[in-house]
Write a structure and sequence with these properties.
alpha+beta; two-stranded antiparallel ribbon; two-stranded antiparallel sheet; 44% helix
Length: 57
C-alpha cells in the first residue's frame, strides 16, 4: 500500500503496517455491525452515545 507524504511524494508503507491494517480491517468487518443508513461500521456503544446527545467529530 502507498500514500502521499507532506512533500507530495509517493511512499511505500512497510509490510508490517500493511499486514496490521488488513488484520484490523478484517476484525472490524467481522465484529462490528454495518450501519445501512451511512454504509459504515458503527458499534452499538457509539450508537448509544449519539442517542444520548453526544456529537461525533
Amino acid at each position: 500500500m502507498k500514500y502521499w507524504d507532506v512533500e507530495n511524494q509517493l511512499v511505500q508503507k512497510s509490510l508490517e503496517l500493511d499486514d496490521w491494517y488488513k488484520t484490523l480491517s478484517k476484525w472490524i468487518k467481522k465484529n462490528v455491525p454495518k450501519e445501512k443508513e451511512c454504509n459504515s461500521y458503527v458499534s452499538p456503544t457509539i450508537k448509544d452515545l449519539v442517542s444520548q446527545g453526544f456529537k461525533l467529530m
